[in-house]
Amino acid sequence: MQKSENASPVIGASAAAAAGGEHVEVPVHYDAILLAGFGGPEGQDDVIPFLRNVTRGRGIPEERLEEVATHYRHFGGVSPINDHNRQLKAALEEELGRRGIDLPVLWGNRNWAPYLGEALDEAAERGFTSLIAIATSAYSSYSSCRQYREDLWGALDASGTHGAITIDKVRQFFDHPGFVTPFIEGVDEAVAAFEQEFGAEGIDSAVEVLFATHSIPTADAERSGPRERDFGHGGAYAAQHNAVAEVVMLAVEQRRAERSASRAEAVAAPIPWQLVYQSRSGAPSTPWLEPDINDAIAELPAAGRRGVVVVPLGFVSDHMEVMWDLDNEARETATDNGLSMIRVATPGTQRAFVSGLVDLVLERRDGTPAAERPALTALGPWFDVCRPACCENARLGFRPALAGIAP
Ligand SMILES: CC1=C(CCC(=O)O)c2cc3nc(cc4[nH]c(cc5[nH]c(cc1n2)c(C)c5CCC(=O)O)c(CCC(=O)O)c4C)C(CCC(=O)O)=C3C
Ligand SMILES: [Fe+2]
């Protein structure tokens, strides 16, 4: 077993194997999978302590916390996210069983019970020393990647299992077919439904597709991904979302073309789409990625749109950001602007997604060569081992993190 304090600057179970490499192309033994979730409150009394956990040291204004608390209160103080992870854990176990793979699944969260530390206690009790983590987050940025890696490191520290337990993490899976396929199917169904509502002809001017993701501070976005590479405005975070949205629309256009061919119609112009942001928090004076989804929706009628497809491209399940900010707020904005809105499903526990997550674990277990790993955009397959300073928080700076090369 590799220890974290060994000579290699790479931190994780596959330390020596990965030194210097972006992909670990040798087999690694794992005792269990660690599903690392965000966590959410499960009752009114949990709401404020949960929000304090999420925002500790982040400079989020008190008014914003009170506002977000009302979203949770509206649903009895319960976020659905823990249930989603319970269901995902069960679905992973089922898929592993179906494939005859003997890998138990442990589950822990960053921000609420069961915490990551509890999962590590369970690992220690069961004698597991080598874990492969799956974070329920697909893209690169401080909030969507590095913070999970830092909190995993912190959980090892706090539970006193540093050195006794090592943790690798599967790559960011934004362009893995298991994650992208549910969005392709969802957008295709939504476009087909609008073809019914508005007629297939002219739908390219009547309908727009908005790919929605969590806004993050612009300074964090610029630092997302490896420091040596320039991904343009919004960093790797925006580049990855744009690349995935392009792949989704290409597939959708292909299916549209097949439908019009079967009706012996000419293929119309492509349906317009854009990447938009939601759930901005932080101080108003701090720049965050834009445009906001509600502003984007309000512009649509002037462009002749009558329908909008909202795709929660940045999210793995229908948690509070989807339920409130999309199904409540964005829908209201659409209605106020006379638009018909269809919100596409998240990957959740859809078969393609669950099966894709198992594939991501197996490519690490087996040390599959990078060239053979599935990736639908030119940006991937993403790193197994993050570069030094990858996705560092613009304000907090360096904090130790797992599954990366130490600076
Ligand atoms: C990129 C990103 C994802 C996607 C990647 C991933 O999925 O991990 C994500 C997911 C989530 N965010 C969530 C909840 C919250 N996020 C907050 C605050 C923030 N999110 C940020 C970014 C992201 N967040 C940022 C930059 C902040 C500012 C504070 C900071 O710098 O950290 C706050 C504080 C109040 C507020 O300011 O809104 C809450 C309550 C939940 C749980 C929902 C539920 O309970 O169902 C989930 C899945
Ligand atoms: Fe968040």
From TrEMBL:
One of its GO terms (molecular function) is metal ion binding. It is found in: Cytoplasm. Pfam families: Ferrochelatase. Its main location: cytoplasm. It is an enzyme of class 4 (lyase). It catalyses: Fe-coproporphyrin III + 2 H(+) = coproporphyrin III + Fe(2+). Involved in coproporphyrin-dependent heme b biosynthesis. Catalyzes the insertion of ferrous iron into coproporphyrin III to form Fe-coproporphyrin III. Belongs to the ferrochelatase family. This is Coproporphyrin III ferrochelatase. It comes from Microterricola viridarii.
